[in-house]
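From the shared-data thread, chain only:
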Amino acid sequence: MIKQPPYLKKGDKIAIVCPAKKLPSGIDQAIEKLRDWGLEVLLGETVSAAHYQFSGTDELRTSDLQQYLDDPEIRAIIAGRGGYGTLRIIDSLDFTAFQQSPKWLVGFSDITVLLSHTLAVCKCQSIHGQMPYTFESSTPEALESLRAALFGEPLEYRYESAIELHRDGEASGELVGGNLSLLLALEGSDSEMDFKGKVLFLEDVGEHEYAIDRMFRTLKRKGKLANLAGLVIGAFNELGEESIPFGQTPEEIIDELVKTYTYPVCFGFPSGHIDDNRAMVLGREVTLKVNGKNVQFKYS
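Structure, as tokens:
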């Protein structure tokens, strides 16, 4: 049974911490936006700390996050940004208090490590969504989706894909997924997500086409793409330059590798390292409908 943390209400306390890379600039605008939502915002030490490329040493990032995992008055923890570093501290964190009193964890990119771990080990929902570092460039729709997800309001996404590839159909199931390269890094560990019978969504940034091909073939060879309920492909952007063309786009790679399966597949979903990064509530039941380029994605 997947646990759902209590939805937020005005006056609740939330915390911003940086479990990975350091912030290159202030996040005052994001803090103000969260306050506009009626929330009391606490800032962890890591928001202003720096240790080479990290937001403080491994020890500081661990203790900072641990403090708010343990604090029962904190109703949500939002990662200030991603980057790299959460994998270095995940095994030093104690989730005992968190499991007794679950709270919303929010982030994407490198924070996939934390979201995957709490779903796999703690059986708890979390939110793959915008972080304070990305608030300023975010679309209003993406920020509103995060607010609605945190406050428990109805959420449904409809869009017309600009990508010709798709597979029609309808599927329901628990939503899992996140950043492709981070999910691959968690394979074989306690933090590994179970994809079987689930609606899987994936995104990535800054990868070469050959690397995307390799990662998807790894998932296929492990049998992790065979028994999905549905597949949602978000943004695969800022691709690495190739001196010799690879010959396939990320979408064409994925389409080729899943064409033997019968579940619905959509491309161009508004999620990932893009301004319109809609909130994805991991562990929650969703329904996916794909009809040509028209996609409907609804939370139960």
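The mean pLDDT is 97.
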